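hey so u asked for the seq, here:
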Amino acid sequence: MRFLTADYLFPLYIAPIKEGVLQISDDGQVIAIFKNRREVPQDKLEIFEGILCPGFVNAHCHLELSHLKGNAEKGKGFLEFSNIIRQRDSYTDTAKQQAIEKAEQEMIANGIVGVGDICNTSDTLEQKQKENLKYYNFIETFGVDVNKVYVVFNQAIELRNEFRAAGQKASIVPHAPYSVPPVLMQKINNAFDDNDELLTIHMQETKEENQLLENKKGPFFDWLNGMNATSSIWKNRDKSTDILQELGDKKVLLVHNTFAKKEDITDNYYCTCPRANLYIENDLPDYSIFDTNKLCVGTDSLASNNSLSILDELLIIQNNSNFDLNTLLKIACKNGAKALGFEHLGTFEKGKIPGVNLIKSMAENKITKLI
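ran it, structure tokens below
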């Protein structure tokens, strides 16, 4: 049993506590919180400089792309970035596995305890079975050619079943409004079952996405036509958020939202990946439009980021919003846990096993994972 205290304790379900004490079991379960250090045995007290908060939740990652780190040139836009992604299979299985293991270790070292991970392959499954982190695996579908929808969907079913058979949480999800036609969306809806809790989708990541759906022209229009894309993608949708009507009343996590406007925001969960947005598009969302009780944060992949650090992401958000520290930490911990259904993560409520991070300096990214 341990009694941990620092300059401030951030339980994230109640207000921060100056010199608050967190009592935690040897296996990391929260037993109690004390508002005064004198309430606990002084010889048991572990005193740290900085702040204590729960472990971080990385709500959006592509762990399987870790081997592509450094391949994409910054600021060239999504279409150029997508060409880099096509290189994913030009690497050996050994190189991929080594990159995946290293990336997971980086997340652990940076205080991450839970991950919402996009999967197009089973490359990460071996590492995830070690249960170093809690994962929600999103089996992504991308099928613009209506003649290939059945093949794309059946492959997704097989991959989802493979993850589930290995004891992993997994759901089939759409890639983006411009890459999933209505017929494929219907299949995704029909596949949603009692084991599913959440759908996620890339949303308004680029200006070209909005231009395609609102104006029926532009670089994405030409790109998709070059792939024999069905016109129902843009004819049936006048804006990106129209696809949400096809998802019904399911819980949804919308990712990126870099070019979203206030009128686009719905009662769903939102995830921002600021360093990836700067890396690919050199732009950021307007953080004032989001409900901070529904906003999460992710790192995206090492193909579009230099690090897998939630603290790095928070620093960007802090410099481009008016969010206070408690709000930033809720975005990094509590909201992601709620969105992904990780009931035992996110806050220091009694009975949870959320991990414990000691942040010595936000600006300098000095963090220690205590538990």
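The chain has a mean pLDDT of 95. The two ends are 12 Å apart (CA to CA).
lmk if thats what u needed
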